Amino acid sequence: MNERSAAEAASDILRLELGERSYDIVVGRGLIDCAGESIAPRLGGRRLLVVSDKTVAGFHGARLEGALSQAGIEHHMLVIPPGEDSKSFRGLEDLLCRLLDLNCDRTVTLAAFGGGVVGDLTGFAASILLRGVDFIQIPTTLLAQVDSSVGGKTGINTRHGKNLIGSFHQPRLVLVDTDVTDSLPERERRAGYAEIVKYGLIDDAAFFEWLEQKGGALIAGDAAARRQAVVTSCRAKARIVGADERERGARALLNLGHTFAHALEAENAYGPELLHGEAVAVGLVLAFTLSARLGLSPPDEAARIARHLTGVGLPASIADLRFRSWSAESLMNHLAFDKKAREGKLRLVLARGIGKAFIAEDVPPAEITATLETAIAEGGAEAAEAAR
Ligand code: GLY
Fold first, then answer.
1. Which of 129, 141, 176, 199 could pair covalently with 27 via S-S, beta carbons 3.0-4.6 A apart?
2. Least confident of 122-126, 159-163, 189-193, 238-242
3. Residues at CB less than 6 angstroms from ligand 1
4. Distance from the CA of 22 to the center of ligand 1, in angstroms?
5. Residue 170: pLDDT band by 50, 70, 90 thresholds?
6. Atom 2 (ligand 1) nearest CA
7. Pairing between strand 161-168 and 153-158?
8. pLDDT digits (tens, 9 = 90+) for 217-237
9. DSSP character string of 304-327
10. Which residues are annotated as catalytic?
């Protein structure tokens, strides 16, 4: 049994249970500065190859490297360009070749030190390098801390869409230093917050209520609230992934709001006007609006969620996305991609109320179209009102 570092001893240690592939999710403050002490006892081999992007490496790289040296871990930092372009076949090839240039063998461990792009790319590289090596996640964005770093989904984007090439490859450790997100632009923190709200809406109404009280402060810098929210989110994700690693059932609940979000993002050609988390915020409200339309959820729940999201500065309706015009027909075409993938059935996560999400197998397309048309028309009505 290893001695825990002071920072780890003061952290929450959650466990994602997957038999031999189970791992710890350590959530706490100041963990980067003693990362070596957390990593060393969980390292299979001798060498750690850290993958980071230029921005994160510039902000926090020296601290992480110092902590690894202090713990006597042989390490090397590989820096990739920031942004989604790195999550491509070319970016993958480049990374794999750079790793092979370092003469690595199967005992090497990779560390993803960054946001979702770095995590997804590094995880995928780890799953195929020398037919699979260990990796750990050290997420530095709120979105990666509460979602993408946990659960082993890895992948890259292609011209056919995002994350269509990838693997399930679980990390050996997820090390979440909640202080790191202090240095994020507030817009990015807010976008990550939408994924936190998602957990409340799926199956934890009390958590959503708590977020209604604390959400604004949490985004603005209340470190204790942020840490508590990250712990609750990671615990929820660990429970769901532990029960359904390969998304054959319950894991699909984590897609609440995401089918709509992906359609909005794809329609906007993944442009910077709409961050993933912002699209998720709008998607969450659309899922509850559709649920109400189908008579499943009380009608005022969608309004309550929208009120909260708007209150913390997130968009909550297509009407809030004023940088372009939207068409229900085009959005439906993007949704139809999922339909094809599911043998002609439109599968969506809907809800019977806050905290009562479920997977709906055959949602009538006409009802989805009508929900989108109404949302878009509300935007039009608002614009007409403003122009008067
Ligand atoms: N981001 C959803 C999942 O990991 O399943």
1. 176
2. 159-163
3. 147, 151, 153, 251, 254
4. 17
5. very high
6. 254
7. antiparallel
8. 999 999 999 999 999 999 999
9. HHHHHHHHTT---SGGG-TTS---
10. 131, 153, 195, 237, 247, 251, 255, 258, 262, 276
Query: Which is the closest atom of ligand 1 to the Cα of 195?
Result: 1
Q: What distance in Å separates the CA atoms of residue 354 and residue 309, rounded to the nearest whole number? A: 14
The CATH number of 186-387 is 1.20.1090.10
Residue 45: predicted pLDDT:
84
CA 258 / ligand 1 centre spacing (Å): 10
Answer for the pair 162, 249: CB distance below 8 angstroms, yes or no: no
d(CA 37, ligand 1 centre) in Å: 29
Tokens of 198: 């998602």
The pTM of this model reads 0.94
State the distance from the centre of ligand 1 to the C-alpha of 315, rounded, in angstroms: 22
- Which atom of ligand 1 is nearest to 251's Cα? 5
Instruction: Give the residue among 201, 97, 194 at the shortest CA–CA distance from 142.
Output: 194
Task: Give me the CATH code for the 6-183 domain, please.
Answer: 3.40.50.1970
pLDDT of residue 340: 44
For CATH 3.40.50.1970, the residue range(s) in the chain are 6-183
Phi and psi at residue 297, to the nearest 5°: -115, 145
Outline which parts of the chain fall under CATH 1.20.1090.10.
186-387
- Rounded Cα distance, 152 and 168, in Å: 5
- d(Cα 127, Cα 139) in Å, to the nearest integer? 18
Per the prediction, the chain carries an average pLDDT of 93
Report whether 368 contacts 374 (CB < 8 A): no
* Type of residue numbered 131: R
- What does the block give as tokens for 58? 């510039």
